[in-house]
Amino acid sequence: MVSMSNEYVSDSSDSEREVEERFEVPAGFKQCKHLKDFKKPKGSKQELWLMKMPSSVDIGKLKKIPVDFAGDAPASFSVDGKKYVVREDLSQEDGPGGGAKASRFAVLAPRSKDVLKADAKLQIAKFFNVSESVEIPAIDYDRVREPRKDVTKVTGLKMCHFATGYGAEDFPEGDTAAAEPPKKKHRKSDDKKEKKDKKDKEKKKEKKEKRKHKD
User: Fold this and answer.
1) Can you give the pTM of this predicted structure?
2) Count of domains for the chain
3) 38, part of any domain
4) Residue 53 sits in which domain range?
């Protein structure tokens, strides 16, 4: 946490401000009393590793943690009846000793029995993730699988659209539909026209008959 020592800050660019850093304990933090005697690694044969453990694991019950560097299969261990696997996180490592990615982490080394201080010389060399391993029980698929039910077929359906790349000539339904000529729709205007033509013919016929009688 970073806080300003002065309540008001001037607008001038060259004004001096004192920055005070205060450490806040993360939520859910539990103090590990058995890690008081932590010693800084000395010499080229010692490395600093970071292991991310689940909150449910009591690391006080662990005397050692297995690690598999061959890469054949992740190492495993058991605590309180639960199985856990250890996998190396290579994505955090960059070059020898962790490199640039490892430098993002600050290491608090013991300065005394009650004081911890950030040490820039200490770099995290390897990263490991510990996660719980759960065995999936065997499933009898022949017993669980439900038999397929056929969909009820509906009769009297007509094909209106064809699949992409197909036409009416590819289906027997399309041939019969194409062979049948389209029926003309009967309109009211056609009825009126027929009646009018019929009346005109009758009038012409009456006129012809009248002329014959006169002659």
Assistant:
1) 0.46
2) 1
3) yes
4) 30-133
